[in-house]
From TrEMBL:
Its cofactor is FAD. SUPFAM superfamilies: FAD-linked oxidoreductase (SSF51730). Its EC number is 1.5.5.2. The keyword Flavoprotein applies. This is proline dehydrogenase. Pathway: Amino-acid degradation; L-proline degradation into L-glutamate; L-glutamate from L-proline: step 1/2. Residues 45-299 form the Proline dehydrogenase domain.
Amino acid sequence: MLGPVILAASRSDRMRRLISAAPVTKQVVDRFIPGETVADIGPIIEDLTAKGLELTMDVVGEDITTPEQATAARDAYLALIDHLKGLELGERVEMSIKLSMFGQALDGGHELALANVRPVVEAAAAIGTTVTLDAEDHTTLDSMFAIHEELRKDFPQTGCVIQSYLFRTEADARRLAGSGSRVRLVKGAYKEPAEVAYQQKHEIDKAYVRILRILMEGEGYPMIGSHDPRLIAIAQELAHKAGRKLDEYEFQMLYGIRGEEHLRLAAEGHRMRVYTAYGTDWYGYFMRRLAEKPANLRFFLRSMVSKG
């Protein structure tokens, strides 16, 4: 399986240098990360929302080693919110945040991440939108869920992400599926040990359906993070059986993957949100996109061959 190999490479400085130096890399990265600055991303936001799509914005960057870098990450999100304020799009454009960017892995990281993320959540609420806390590797999740619970005391619309490949997630889903919650379900994109996570695709998919049923039958707002046509069809069936209206759940997919499907779902009346990342520290994000789906890796390799 190439996925674990690619995920290991995502943490290799040598591979980072090699891939970053490849002439074709920027062309391929642009498929998934359409800009480096707020100015770059503005036209993308306006174009996608004009097509009936919604967005969640991610400022890429995870290798935070100092409190100053964590503060800079906070400020990058505040700059994004300041730009969104002028567009007056409200909840049609929300934000996704990895707490590792906000200092979670540093000494005193839990408190530091909470202190950094709170002003971003406050500023998002002030312009009528919200924030979703992304899930990272399993060692970070108890801290993420605790921060999520703390933020929801003042900002109940704050969302979080759960991953179907982890054994713990069915219990997490039951706990999180209460009234007013917003929960994005994804398969998971980190290399996790067999002690905590399913390793086979069919096991991960079956867990995804079980967890999605819990969310659909709960009182919260499910966000289906998948590009898999079969899982999308199952989600629609589960929503119908649960008596949910089209505005009581949403689909989420990555920018650059299955764009025609984004438009098809939106045209059918579904809420369709595009996960759109931007920034200069793109390497880790890009490598996980390659690891998640063989077609992404084939696209990258074909591009290297054709441009080499």
